[in-house]
Design goal:
Blueprint: H1 22-29, H2 38-59, E1 61-62, H3 64-72, E2 80-81, H4 82-98, E3 102-103, H5 110-123, E4 127-130, E5 133-136, H6 141-149
Parallel strand pairs: 1-3
Antiparallel strand pairs: 2-5, 4-5
Helix pairs in contact: 3-4, 3-5, 3-6, 4-5
């Protein structure tokens, strides 16, 4: 730590969305759940669940590790230079911002955010560096996909 070799484990971030009132939803639709038969009740609960999942997805923050993981997970057999990865990360950030995603950019510096994401993945040995090229560790593909899936609902076009 004294020599500057210590790094944080990454970032955690929380966003809060607009509250959803099931009571107001039922009142607006003229629903009384105890009076519904099983099929209709399940259908209405499914509609509510879908709305909640969409609302949750819209406020999930994009963290540096998930950002970089989403790029590497596209083609796990491909090794990329740091410059290629950085360019892809910047393109992905632009696409996500255009879609209204909540990006957490530490220090308000996109280069730093990219560096944090790549560093965390390499420190955890999820990504390997060999001869200046980065690629997913074959035995860590599931873990890489886990991090990438945190933002998969936002789409993968970048």
């Amino acid at each position: 730590m004294a020599s500057g070799g210590w790094h944080r484990f990454g970032y955690a971030c929380v966003n809060f969305g607009t509250p959803f009132s099931v009571r107001a939803y039922a009142r607006e639709r003229g629903l009384h759940f105890p009076a519904l038969n099983d099929e209709l009740r399940r259908a209405e609960v499914g509609i509510i669940a879908a709305r909640l999942m969409d609302a949750i997805g819209s406020v999930i923050p994009v963290l540096p590790v998930s950002l970089v993981a989403s790029i590497l997970a596209r083609d796990p057999s491909r090794a990329m230079s740091e410059l290629e990865l950085k360019a892809a990360a910047h393109a992905r950030m632009g696409e996500l911002e255009a879609r209204g995603a909540h990006l957490y950019i530490p220090r308000h510096d996109q280069d730093y955010a990219f560096g944090v994401g790549l560093r965390m993945l390499t420190l955890r040995r999820i990504v390997l560096e060999e001869d200046g090229l980065f690629r997913p560790a074959p035995e860590q593909i599931e873990m890489l996909n886990y991090y990438a899936n945190a933002i998969s609902h936002l789409g993968s076009n970048a």
